[in-house]
Amino acid sequence: MNELPFWIQLLILIGLLFLSAFFSISETSLMAVNKYRIRNLAGKGSKGAKQVLGLLSRTDKLLGTILLGNNIINAALTALVTAIAINAFGNNDQVLALATGTAALLLIVFAELIPKVTGANRPDGIAMLASYGLILFTWVLQPFVFIINKIVSLMLSAANLEFSSQKSDGLTSDELRSAVLESSTFIPLHNRKIFLNLLDLEELSIDDVMIPRGRIEFLNLEDDISILKEQISTCFHNKILVCNGDLNQIEGILHIKRVISILAKEDFSKESIMDVIQPVYFIPVGTKLFSQLKNFQERKENLAIIVDEYGEVEGLITLQDIVEELVGEFTTDNPGFIAQPVAWNDCNNAIVNGLTSVRELNRDLGLSLPTNGPRTLNGLILETLEDLPETNLSLKIHNLQVEILAVQGLLIKKARIFKPKSKSKNKNQEKK
Q: For the chain, where do the domains classified as CATH 3.10.580.10 start and end?
């Protein structure tokens, strides 16, 4: 080495630095690469992307090649710097210390920091470019890497540790949720909400989105025929339950279109209704929302009655309720029947129906009420009170002030929710 001209030694030094930087930038970029984007590019025919996937399929072989190559290069570079220093300044302790420090500085700055920061910032493109060189080094160093990996495998086996060259690339539900939330640049807000709602579908049950018993409209056969006629003619739904006395005595379900043509006839009677009603589809409480969606599809139904273990009607759910849970509320052709979201008024409070679901309150008002207990505001208030509700009674539910405005028996018909102070301050600041 001492016989070589200084400029050749300098060129060799630069070459070694370049190779060390190549291994460093390759390692960082390949470990930080977006595998899903690379798979997409590979599917479109990108050769570089296919090579990256091939390298990542055997991480033990890949890392063995990079680490072996990098350590050989770094050792050679340190030896070369030391030789140049001794040739220039003589062989003593100070020169050796200077050579070691210079080699360390060169490696840290030019072969570690700069390449790794660059590789972390632009991993996909650099990984595909570096894959061509890495495939060559993998082939050249294959015998040595094989021996090293066998030694590592034996040592891990002796320590009862599992050695695996592959790992699962699958995402958990929480990881997929985080990925969707972080993709605001690429996916519109509405589409992100649909993705997130779809992930929630596996966890939610029909109890979370059902129309509760107190809000179900039905025809009572004990009413006078004139009342039934008026109820049918003014019904906003295309189907309505037919009961004999109360909701627990369901006779069937009436399709409004089937009865509207005979409604004006003089001989229209309760028997006319009974002649055209259809059987009701009953389902148990607690059914998972996604399972019910598949049940609707298999049975070709779009409405079901939810009953508890004693056969008591708990609520009603339609196919539209499940679809709206995914894509948001639909509007109707009847302006008076459009469901208005709950919202804060100018007095920083919201007056809501007691049967409004907790999930709806959280969504529309930006609250964080617990969803693992009672499904409605009425149930949440009763659970907190542990007593009979009274009009004009105020209470706190999870630091949220609520005032009961109207009560009917054990049912809270209307309540006022006061906006939390932090939200009120934020709103006032926005106005300013």
A: 200-331
Residues 280, 126: Cα–Cα separation, whole Å: 62
CA distance 250 to 310: 15
Check residue 336 and give its pLDDT: 42
Confidence at residue 89, expressed as pLDDT on a 0 to 100 scale: 82
Sequence-ordered alpha helix ranges (H) in 110-159 = 114-121, 123-140, 142-158
Q: For each successive 10 residues of the chain (432 residues), what is the average pLDDT? A: 77 92 93 88 91 89 91 92 85 86 91 92 93 92 89 82 60 74 74 79 84 90 91 88 92 90 82 91 92 93 92 92 80 49 86 87 86 86 87 89 88 90 55 45
Q: Boundaries of CATH 3.30.465.10 in the chain?
A: 349-431
Amino acid 268: pLDDT: 85
pTM of the model: 0.60
Q: Does domain 349-431 have CATH number 3.40.50.1000?
A: no
Nearest of 212, 201, 174 to residue 291 by alpha carbon: 201
Q: In DSSP terms, which residues pair with 313 in a beta bridge?
A: 307
Predicted pLDDT of residue 363: 81
The pLDDT, as a whole number, for residue 319 is 92
Token reading at 107: 């490696």
Q: What whole-number distance in Å separates Cα of residue 107 and Cα of residue 76?
A: 12
Single out the residue of 338, 323, 351 nearest to residue 412, CA to CA: 351
Give Cα separations from 75 to 70, 81, 87 (angstroms): 9, 10, 18
State whether the Cα torsion 369-372-375-379 is positive or negative.
negative
Residue 27 CA to residue 59 CA, distance in Å, equals: 11
For 274-385, where are the E strands, in sequence order?
A: 282-284, 303-307, 313-318, 349-353
Long-range contacts of 288-292 (CB under 8 A, 24+ apart): 288/202, 288/204, 288/205, 288/206, 289/201, 289/202, 289/204, 289/205, 289/206, 289/208, 289/209, 289/322, 289/325, 290/201, 290/202, 292/206, 292/317, 292/322
Structure tokens at 68: 């072996």
Alpha carbons 96 and 82: distance in angstroms, whole number: 7
Does the structural domain 200-331 have CATH classification 3.40.50.700?
no
Residue 265: count other Cβ atoms within 10 Å of its Cβ: 9
- Beta-sheet strand order (sheet of 411-418): 349-353, 411-418, 400-408, 394-397
Q: What is the pLDDT of residues 136-189, one digit of tens each?
A: 999 999 999 889 888 888 888 888 776 555 555 667 777 777 777 777 677 787
Tell me the CA distances in angstroms from 202 to 69, 166, 209, 287, one per residue in order. 48, 29, 13, 11
Tokens, residue 322: 């499940």
